[in-house]
Structure formats: C-alpha cells, structure tokens
Design brief:
The complex is a heterodimer. By secondary structure, chain A is an alpha/beta fold. Chain A has 24 helices and twelve strands. Chain A has a six-stranded mixed β-sheet with strand order 8-9-10-5-11-12, sandwiched between helices. In chain A, strands 4-3-6-7 form a four-stranded antiparallel β-sheet, with helices on one face. By secondary structure, chain B is mostly helical. Chain B has twelve helices and no strands. Chain B has helices at 2-30, 36-54, 59-86, 93-113, 133-155, 157-167, 169-174, 179-200, 202-205, 211-226, 231-251, 254-271. Chain B is globular, with a radius of gyration of 18 Å. Classes of the chains: A alpha/beta, B mainly alpha. The A-B interface holds A 73, 75, 123, 126-131, 133-135, 137-142, 145-146, 149-150, 209-210, 255-256, 259, 266, 295-296, 298-299, 301-303, 305-306, 308-310, 313, 390, 394, 399, 431 and B 33, 80-81, 84-85, 88, 91-97, 99-101, 103-104, 107-108, 111, 213-214, 216-217, 220-221, 224, 253-255, 258-259, 261-262, 265-266, 269-270, 273, 284-285.
C-alpha cells in the first residue's frame, strides 16, 4: 500500500479548530457586554429579573454538568438551593451561632452544598435513571419537610430573613453586578471543564459507559467531583436567592423551580454551555412578557418537557457540522505514524490466562481456558458463535470475574472487576458494536482514549491552569496522530454519529491506540468492512504488533486470521479445540470439520 | 399512645403500599416506572372531596367517579407518556415523559383546585372513636386490593394474560395476546388502585395538590425495598415504612423521621439496588 500518495493535512483541522473556537466565544462575549451594560437601559424591576436570571444560571451551570454532560436525571436539585439559602441566611442572621459576615456565611453554604451534592449524587453510581431521579426527588421532599419542622433554626413556616451583602453590593445594581460576576465565573469554569478531558469523559459516561471504563475513566471519582462542584454552586445560588428575596419560607422552594432548571438544560441541548445559558435566560424572562400566563408557567414548562421528550429527544439548539460530507471517501491508514504514536513501548511480559472457568447458571461459557498473548504478536481467537470468544475478552478486561483460574499480566494477577484499572495497565480494547459518543467529534472521541495520560486535576481544569492547557494540547496532538495512523484525520472535526460503520470501527482502533497499549483486544474489528478495508486493517494490525503491542484478535473472517496471526486458538463450547500456527490450524481435521467447513 | 401509633402507622403504610402496587401494576405491563403513581393518590383525595363535599354527590357515586377518573388518567398516561417511548426503552425517556405528565396534572390541580389543603368528607356517618374510619378505611382498601389482585391473577383469563405480559412480553405477543390493550387495561387498573389509595386515605392526607410528589416518593420506597413488580414485598415494606414513620414522628419528631426514612432508603438501595427481594442480571458488553 502506498501511504505516501495521500498528503497529510493535520493543520487544516487545527486552524479551523482555533477559528471555530473564536466563533464559539462570540455569543458569550455578546452576553457579557449586554450584562455589563444592562443598568444603562433597564428599569428597577428588570434589574430584579436580570439578577434572578444570573442566580438561576449559577445553579444551572453546575447542574448542566450533571444533567447535560453526565446524563444523570437529577430532578430535585432545588433542594441544594434551599440548603444554601437557609445556611447562608441562618448563619448571617446569627440566630443559632454568632452572626457571621454574609460572605463567610456564603462560603460555608458552598461547603455544605458541596457535601450534600456529593451525598445526594453518589447513589447515581449504583442506581439507574428512575431510581436516581426519585432519590433526588425524595431528597427535595425531605429538605422541605425539615425546613418546616426545624422551627428553632429555620423559623418553620414563618421563615427567616435573607442575608444583606454590604457595600458595594448592597444597592440593587451593586447586588446585580455581584451575581452577574459569579454567573460569569461559573460560565467560564464550566466551559473550561466542558472542553477538558473531564468534560469528554462525562459525555463518554453518558453515551458510551462501557467504552469510558475501558478508557480508564473512573466513574465514581469523576461523578464525585462533578456532584461536589454542582452542589457548591447550587448552594451559593441559594445564598444569593435568599438575599434577593430578602425573606425566605419553605414555600419559596417548590419542585417547580427544579423543573425550570431541568428544562432550561434540556431545551438548551445536552452537552452544551451556551444552550442551557440561553434556556435559563429565556425561562426566567418569558413569564414577565406574558403576565396572564405566570400562574400557568410551570404547567407550560411541563408541557414543554413532554413535547421535547416525545418530539425531539436529541439536541435542539445544535447547528454544528451540518456541512455535507464527501461521499465515497476511503480510509487509508498510515502505519508509518505508529512509531511516533506508540513510541518505545516498555517491554511487557505476556498476558496469560490459566485454567480460567466461568459459567452463567448452567452454561459453561469458558471451561478451563489457557491462553498466552505475547508482545509483538497477533493472536487469533476463533470459534463458532457461543464458543466463549467475547466472554474471554470480557474476563480479560474485567467485565466478568472468572470463577476459577487466573488472568496474569507479566506474572501478576489482574484485579477482578477493576475495569478502569485495565487502561492504566495499558490494556486497550474495542467492541463488537462500536461504542462511540455520537454527539462529539471524531477527534474528541479519540481523545477520550488518552484520558489516563492527562495529569491535571479537576480543579486545575475548572480554572484553566497551565497544566490543563498542556494536557489538552498533548491529547489533541496525540489524537491527530492516532487519526492519521488509522487514516481518518480528514474527519477529525466531524460529529461521530455522521460516520459510516467502517469509519466507526477505525475510530475505535484510534481511540484504543491513544493508550499506547501493551495489549490490544479487538472484538470482531472486521465485521461489516469491505474486502479492501479488511486488507488495510490487516496491514495496520500487523504494524501495531511490529511496534511492540500484543494483539488479541477475535474474528469470524478466517482469511484475516490466517493472513496476519502468529498464533491461533480455536474455541468450541468454552474449551480449546486446537491451538497453533495458522498453517497447523488450517490442516487440523476437527477444526475444518467443525468450523471452517 | 401505642394504639394510635399502630393504627395511624398501619393506615399510612397501607396507603404507601397501595401506591407501590400501582407502580408495580404499571411496571409489570410495560417495564416502566411512572411518576404519575403519586399523582393518582393525590387525585383520589381531590376528586373525592370535589364530588362528595363540593358537588354533594352520594358517597358511592363520588367513589365510583373518582376511581373512573383515576382509570382514565391511567389510560392517558399509557397513551401519552409511555407508549411513544417504549420503542427506545434503553434511553429511559419514560422518566421525563411521565414526570412531565405528573407535573401537568399537579399544576392543573394547584390552579383549578387551589394550593390549600382542603378537608375530605367523612364517608360514613358514625361518631369519631378510637379506631376510627380514617384508619380502617385504608386498611380495608389495601386488603381488598390484595385479595382482588390475587383472584384476578390466579383465577381469571385476563389476569393470566397480565402475568404473561409481565413475564415475557415478546413471547406473549407471539402467542397472539393483544399486548397493547392489555397494557392499557393494566394502566387503567393501576389508575384505579392509586386513586383508591388517596380516596381511602383522604381524611388523613386531605385533598391537597402537594400530596403528589410526597406520595410519589414514599410510595416508591416500598417498591424499591420490596423488589420491583413484587406486590407482597411492597405491602410488607409499606407497612413497615408507615409504622416506622409514625413511631418516629410521635417519639422523636418529624425531622428525624424524614431523615431516617431517606437514609434507610438510600442505604438499602446502595446495598441491594434490586431490592431486598429480587435479583436481576444485565449483560452490558
């Protein structure tokens, strides 16, 4: 294959990337200007509305990471607003403790909110959708009940006075600027996270959880950070809300508010910052234009929610990448890029399976399997459907735990069920059905594969500190290199859900290569590929093995297996039917009878 | 003291259990949990008060009309919020669609009926006494529903068809069962059961729009603890929840009761996400 014939065009993607980043920042700058200039135009009442929009956005910006990015249905987030409002008010009023300065009270509220955000959010790690949704709803119910019942602190149904922030933020416009500033900071911080490896990891958890784990993303750690952040900003919003209301009772915090926050995110579109921001402004301002509708506003929000879910369950304000793609495009891998991409792989020992057994109920999926995958070799695993090939892959990558036997890497047993740890050990994999984040670009999808190589912390990403920017540049460069290696660099900026099936398969390979894998597990990578594409895939896989990676190839295409494998294992009903070089297998009588025909 | 704790605890527990059964009946027919379960209970109180106290209907007529209203709402739920999203069950859109419908009903009630808790009429004209009708009515309703469902499932053809759908809807359809009509019937049945809970417990809970989210949560606790689709588990867990809540209310105070229930709920769910009685296995890769 002549790889030199196609010119390389990484710079185009990069150049258009920075230009589009500028275009993407324009609406935010316009909103910033409008927000700063608002007091020149608006009258008193509009100031209150604008302040309220800012406060709501402080909360929604954090909730957006939970709902829009991580896809967790947190419908009771008003509870954290309540918590922040009461904490700030009670501490500032000094009914229980000595009166604290309002800023200190607000900061303490943020800490309390962070803790409760984590507590309410953590069940999401084990509970799915409805269970988690109802947990947050239950929390909201409980918080209101406690606010009503704990009269000595909250004043019960009578309520408590909100905090007053001292000059220069005491006047109406002063307080507006205070809230506006916080809203702007929240926008900036969440936009930083959204564009970081953490933001990509969140969408990966939402749309391709299994692939996220295989890429080394730890769901507990990541969601923990996001829930903590979201709880903190929600509680800050609560403190500001109490100050704006000047007096709060439990009635002020109905579930309606939660729904407003939630719908603002949904109409804005999942995985966007600007959309939910506009959604929040719209939903805060809209009732003011239609006074007779104010009583019905929550009803209308609910109708809106139903319409969104039934009619347009995807993104609404999404105009990205509508340009048509050229048809008849070919995937031309450039194996010569692998050397730079993979570098000098540390000389790992073999990956071995010893007498591994696993049964589901009465079915023995794997029954005493021995396997040795060596670096620099392609190891083929073939067999009829149900012979245990994918199950073997799942045992190695930690989705199943063997009932007996051991899986060892370089002699050390792999920990059971620690799926995301596999990526740290440089074991990468692809999936029978490609697991891709459809709404993210191809480049972003590939960058997900390099998550474990990022060094900066969540807080550094929030604040866009140097290490964050270095990580992003490194991941972007490596991902472009990986895309060149598999031959997809021209599609880097395209939304992944617009790709053809074969391109998705190569995208998964590129994502796996981001790990610089010592071992690469491929689950039927040639399924659905044309003969020509299979030929290119074989060359690519051979080159990957030459670079030092041990490749385990589960396949049905016998030709591909016999062409490139150094060693072949044939499974039948969970047992090894035959093992040896391709030539030996091809002449193995039982294999020919049972499988090759 | 102990007498009133037990009678009110069991009564409240029966209401929670009935809402839990409404969840289960809908779940069995469609593999979907609906946020409208608590709304049905709220409507039971509001419709009963509307028909009997405000419009002056006889108790029996008001009762039947309220149940019919609940059944109609059940059917609307199936058509509007469940059927359109069943195709893509894995996207969990039903969480949002049923939530939207529940909120619409709740808001409509708040606007048209009012946001104050209004009294629910006394159904039988007998003097108030220790073991009052407000306590034994929910218990009677709960017992009637359990016996009725048992008879329906074990001894009638349509009940067996319900079970077949719950067990394996594909196979049931392949056998020629009218899955869609059975699902609508299940939702109507769940609607009637949920409304019955609110109607029978009307005197305790009053006719109050905010009962909807409260019952949606507390009615789901028995489902989560008893195992989804498991009615017996729901009844046992519901009774325990009611007793625990009332005892804590009387003895330690409402704050502790609320927090304790929520904590127990979370801990049990985290330890056994499939409920105390029930097991599921899902293939992910």
């Amino acid at each position: 294959m002549d790889t030199r014939a196609t010119p390389l065009r990484p710079n185009r993607a990069q150049a258009s990337g920075s230009a589009s980043a500028l275009v993407a920042a324009l609406p935010f700058l316009a909103l910033l200007l409008a927000g700063v200039a608002l007091p020149l135009f608006g009258g008193g009442y509009w100031g209150v509305i604008a302040t309220r929009a800012c406060i709501y956005w402080v909360l929604v910006s954090g909730l957006n990471l939970v709902v829009g990015f991580a896809g967790q249905i947190a419908i009771g987030w008003v509870a954290l607003l309540t918590l922040g409002a009461y904490t700030t008010s009670v501490l500032a009023a000094g009914t229980v403790t000595p009166a604290l300065p309002p800023y200190l009270a607000l900061a303490i509220a943020a800490v309390v909110g962070a803790i409760f955000g984590l507590v309410v959010g953590l069940p999401a790690l084990r509970l799915r959708t409805f269970y988690f949704a109802i947990t947050t709803l239950g929390f909201a119910t409980i918080v209101t009940q406690v606010a009503l019942a704990w009269q000595s602190v909250t004043g019960g149904g009578v309520g408590v006075a909100g905090p007053v922030f001292p000059e220069p933020f005491a006047s109406q416009w002063g307080f507006y600027y205070f809230c506006f500033g916080l809203a702007a900071i929240c926008t900036w911080m969440t936009a930083n996270v959204a564009a970081s490896r953490f933001g990509r990891a969140l969408t990966a958890i939402r749309d391709a959880e299994v692939a996220a784990e295989a890429s080394g993303i730890s769901k507990p750690v990541l969601l923990g950070a996001v829930f903590t952040f979201s709880g903190a900003v929600a509680a800050v919003a609560g403190g500001l809300f109490a100050s704006l209301q000047s007096y709060i009772t439990p009635d002020a915090f109905t579930i309606d508010l939660s729904i407003l926050f939630f719908i603002a995110i949904l109409i804005g579109g999942r995985g966007s910052i600007l959309g939910p921001l506009l959604g929040t402004i719209l939903l805060t301002v809209l009732p003011e234009f239609a006074a007779p509708l104010v009583a019905w506003s929550t009803f209308l929000y609910a109708v809106l929610l139903l319409v969104i879910v039934l009619a347009i369950p995807g993104e609404i304000l999404d105009f990205r990448n509508r340009r048509s793609l050229e048809s008849g495009r070919a995937i031309i891998p450039r194996p010569d890029r692998l050397e730079r991409l993979l570098g000098a792989l540390p000389n790992a020992g073999p990956l071995t399976l010893e007498q591994v057994r696993l049964s589901f109920g009465g079915v023995r999926a794997i029954d005493g399997l021995d396997l040795e995958i060596r670096p620099c070799q392609v190891h083929g695993l073939i067999g009829p459907n149900g012979s245990g090939k994918t199950t073997t892959l799942n045992v190695i990558s930690g989705y199943y735990t063997q009932q007996s036997g051991a899986v060892r890497l370089n002699g050390a047993a792999l920990p059971a069920l620690a799926r995301h740890r596999r990526a740290h050990m440089r074991i990468a994999r692809t999936f029978q059905t490609p697991r891709i984040v459809g709404s993210a670009s191809v480049l972003e999808n590939v960058m997900i594969g390099g998550t474990v190589d990022g060094e900066c912390t969540f807080v550094e990403s929030l604040l866009s500190l140097p290490r964050h920017r270095r990580d992003e540049a490194m991941l972007r460069d490596t991902a472009l290199l990986a895309l060149e290696a598999v031959g997809l660099e021209r599609l880097a900026a395209v939304r992944a859900d617009r790709l053809q099936h074969s391109e998705l398969r190569f995208t998964e390979v590129a994502r796996a290569l981001m790990l610089r894998p010592a071992f690469l597990l491929l689950d039927e990578p040639a399924a659905g590929l044309s003969t020509e594409e299979i030929r290119r895939l074989s060359a690519l896989l051979l080159a990957i093995a030459r670079a030092g990676t041990g490749v385990l190839l589960v396949e049905h295409h016998a030709d591909l297996i016999f062409d490139i494998c150094h060693h072949v294992t044939v499974l039948n009903l969970g047992r090894i039917l035959a093992a040896g070089t391709p030539a030996e297998i091809r002449s193995h009588r039982e294999v020919v009878n049972a499988y090759l025909g | 003291m102990i007498g009133s704790i037990v009678s009110s605890g069991v009564a409240i527990g029966c209401i929670y259990a009935l809402i839990g059964i409404a969840y289960n009946v809908m779940f069995s027919a469609s593999r979907v949990f609906s946020f409208t379960a608590g709304t049905l209970g709220m409507l039971g109180g509001v419709l009963g008060s509307l028909f009997i106290a405000r419009m002056g209907m006889p108790v029996a007529a008001g009762f039947l009309l309220a149940l019919a209203g609940g059944a109609a709402l059940g059917i609307v739920t199936e058509i509007v919020a469940v059927r359109p999203v069943l195709k893509s069950l894995d996207q969990h859109l039903y969480v949002l669609s049923t939530l939207a419908l529940a909120l619409m009903i709740q808001q409509f009630t708040a606007i048209e009926w009012g946001t104050d808790a209004r009294p629910f009429p006394r159904l039988f004209d007998i003097a108030r006494g220790g073991f009052d009708q407000q306590f034994w009515l929910p218990m009677l309703a709960c017992a009637a529903v359990i016996v009725g469902l048992e008879l329906l499932y074990r001894h009638t053809l349509i009940g067996r068809a319900f079970l077949a759908i719950a067990e394996d809807s594909y196979a049931a359809r392949a056998l020629g069962l009218p899955e869609r009509r059975l699902r609508m019937a299940s939702y109507a049945l769940a609607g009637a059961i949920g409304t019955l809970a609110g109607f029978a417990g009307g005197e305790m809970l009053l006719a109050f729009f905010a009962n909807a989210p409260m019952l949606t949560f507390y009615g789901f606790v028995p489902v989560a603890l008893g195992g989804m689709g498991n009615n017996r588990g729901a009844v046992v867990a519901g009774l325990l929840l009611g007793l625990f809540q009332q005892a804590a209310n009387f003895l330690v105070g409402g704050i502790f009761a609320s927090v304790a229930v929520f904590t127990v709920f979370i801990i049990v769910l985290l330890a056994r996400p499939e409920g105390l009685a029930g097991a599921t296995f899902q293939r992910r890769v």
